[in-house]
Specification:
2 domains, 7 helices, RNA_MeTrfase_FtsJ_dom, methyltransferase, transferase
Length: 243
C-alpha cells in the first residue's frame, strides 16, 4: 500500500523520498490523500519522536515561542483538549504535576491520563460545563484559557461558520468569567471568520488582540488563532449580549 517514490529531479537523497499511498479498494480518495499527507508530514514525525499526542502540540509551542504565553506556575484551561497535545505542552511549560495540577482540560472524547492535567470528559457547550471546570480548578482563577475546539464540518459553509463562531463566543464568555487580571485567551478561529462584534468585545476586555498562523498550522487550511493578552477584567457596564 505504501510506496517510497522519488520526488522531483530523480536524485536519490532521503529528502527527495516521498511516501505515496496507493488507493485501496473501499478507501475513499480523500482518506488516501489524508494518509499520504500524514505520512509525509514532518510535524507528525516530530510529535511521535518527542512524545506528543498530536501534531497540534507544535501549534501552541510555536505560538508560545513567539508570543511568550506560558510561565511556571500558571493555571491553564484547555478547551477541546483531545488527544492532549496542547495540555502536554502546557503541563511542561507551567511545571504542573499530579501533586499540584495547574492544567484542566475538557473534551467530549475520551482521553488517556496526562501527568499534571485534570481531564473532564464533557461537552463544553453543556450548561454545567463551566461550573465543572471551575470546580476542577479548585475555584481559582486561570491565567490562560485556550481553545482548539472545532466541530466536525458539515460541508455547508454557512452552517459551519455559525457553529464555529458560537463555540468561540461561549469560550470567550467563559474566559471573561475565569481569567485572572492580565490573563490570556487563545482560540481557534477561521481566517476571515472572527466576527466583528466578537473582536470588538475582546478588544474592550484585553490590552492586545491579534491573529496568529503558526507554521505548524497547514498553509492550505483556513485555520488561524486569535490571541488576546492582558485581561482587564469583565466590563460590567459593557454590552455582554455581544458575547
Ligand atoms: C483539533 S482537536 C484539539 C487538539 C488538541 N489541541 C491537541 O493538541 O491534541 C479539537 C477538539 O475539540 C473537541 N471539541 C469540539 N467541540 C467540543 C465541545 N463542544 N466540547 C468539548 N470538546 C469539543 C473535539 O472533540 C476535538 O478533540
Amino acid at each position: 500500500m505504501v510506496d517510497k517514490a522519488l520526488g522531483t529531479g530523480g536524485r536519490k537523497s532521503d529528502k527527495d523520498l516521498k511516501i505515496r499511498v496507493k488507493s485501496a479498494k473501499g478507501r475513499k480518495v480523500s482518506s488516501t490523500k489524508w494518509l499520504e499527507r500524514q505520512l509525509n508530514d514532518p510535524y507528525v514525525a516530530r510529535a511521535r519522536a518527542e512524545g506528543y499526542r498530536s501534531r497540534a502540540a507544535f501549534k501552541i509551542k510555536e505560538m508560545d515561542e513567539k508570543h511568550k504565553l506560558f510561565r511556571k506556575g500558571m493555571r491553564v484551561v484547555d478547551l477541546g483538549a483531545a488527544p492532549g497535545g496542547w495540555s502536554q505542552v502546557a503541563a511542561k511549560a507551567t511545571g504542573s504535576t499530579d501533586a499540584n495540577p495547574l492544567i484542566v482540560g475538557i473534551d467530549y472524547l475520551e482521553m488517556d491520563p496526562i501527568p499534571g492535567v485534570i481531564l473532564l470528559k464533557k461537552d463544553f457547550t453543556e450548561d454545567d460545563a463551566p461550573a465543572m471546570l471551575i470546580e476542577a480548578m479548585g475555584g481559582k482563577k486561570a491565567d490562560i484559557v485556550m481553545s482548539d475546539m472545532a466541530w466536525p464540518t458539515t460541508g455547508h459553509r454557512g452552517t459551519d461558520h455559525i457553529r464555529i463562531i458560537h463555540l468561540i463566543e461561549i469560550a470567550a464568555d467563559f474566559a471573561l468569567d475565569v481569567l485572572a487580571p492580565g490573563g490570556v485567551f487563545i482560540a481557534k478561529v477561521f481566517q476571515g471568520g472572527t466576527e466583528h462584534e466578537l473582536l470588538h468585545m475582546l478588544k474592550r476586555h484585553f490590552k492586545t488582540t491579534m491573529h496568529a498562523k503558526p507554521p505548524a498550522s497547514r498553509s492550505d487550511s483556513a485555520e488561524a488563532y486569535l490571541i488576546a493578552k492582558g485581561f482587564k477584567g469583565r466590563d460590567e457596564d459593557g454590552d455582554d449580549a455581544e458575547v
